[in-house]
Amino acid sequence: MPVPEDFALQETEAADLGQGEFLVAMRVGSVDPAIRGFLDDRPSYVEPVAIGAPIKGMSLGEVIVSNHADYPVGTLVRAFATWSDHYVLSGDAWGLEKVHRQADTELHHYMGALGPVGLTAWVGLFAVGEAKPGETVVVSAAAGATGSTVGQIAKARGCRVIGLVGSAEKAAVIRDLGFDAAIDYRATPDIAAEIARAAPEGVDVYFDNVGGEVLEAVLPLMRLHGRVAVCGMVGQYNDADHPHGVRTLWQLVVNRIRMQGFITYDYPEVLSQAQAELDAWVAQGKLKPLANVRDGFEKLPEAFIDLMSGRTIGKTLVRI
Predict the structure, then answer these.
(1) Type and span of the H or E element at 254
(2) For 254-310, what is each residue's pLDDT tens digit?
(3) 3-class secondary structure, 308
(4) How far apart are CA 83 and CA 6, in angstroms?
(5) CATH 3.90.180.10 in the chain, residues?
(6) Where in the numbering of this chain does the Enoyl reductase (ER) domain appear (predicted)?
């Protein structure tokens, strides 16, 4: 588990801008479970964070100095950057997008349900999971940033949605968001039996944020040709050297289940459609952004520690 002593706040000289680069002032820092994986010295989809180096993560910021004609001063951008209050980007930065803020929408939502969180939920549910109207969707960590979004957009598309959470408080939150069923896995000795009661005809799509024992419980409940979209396995991030051995993988063969991990930006061809639908669902009241927000750059470690402890509800964000 991360603790405050793992982090330090340091000041460094600002880098000089090269041709085609621009200086960004962080406005909203994204606090994500995936960051925990970047802090282990093991292969991942990004290079591990070296000891003493700034943490990597998604950030939303404002261009304040620019040597790039396409990103003039005042442009709002999202990108995979560092936990630095100012950072330099180029036009080919990973995940770089311009943010077109609506006047009546708070900026931090563009790092949540109207940003990477919403896009991840959409890609996993529809591009990977291929969820269709009338199907039953189960999502773990359902009161979290991605899970709460998955459930709402699945309902918007006409799916039946079952959410798995870790407390009675979180169960109440997702019921208020319109989930058809909420299961507190900490309050039941047999999570598989509870899911089976809520989905007597089986599960078409499982959106997995947790892995481990929850994944093991869900697989035997999948319907023929079911799909599992693997977004994360937060249940293992703090002890990746001792992962839970899933004993029900044979079900992939029995029911010809397709199980696939994904990264949002592997699907650039669908992101404009995803963004348009997310914007529309928020405007229609079908998607209610769920966020817990702190203020101050120095709050990033505290927010991350709370996230990894399971204490947070919705998208964890820090405004600068």
Answers:
(1) helix 251-254
(2) 999 999 999 998 999 999 999 999 999 998 999 998 888 999 999 999 999 998 888
(3) helix
(4) 14
(5) 4-112+289-319
(6) 2-318
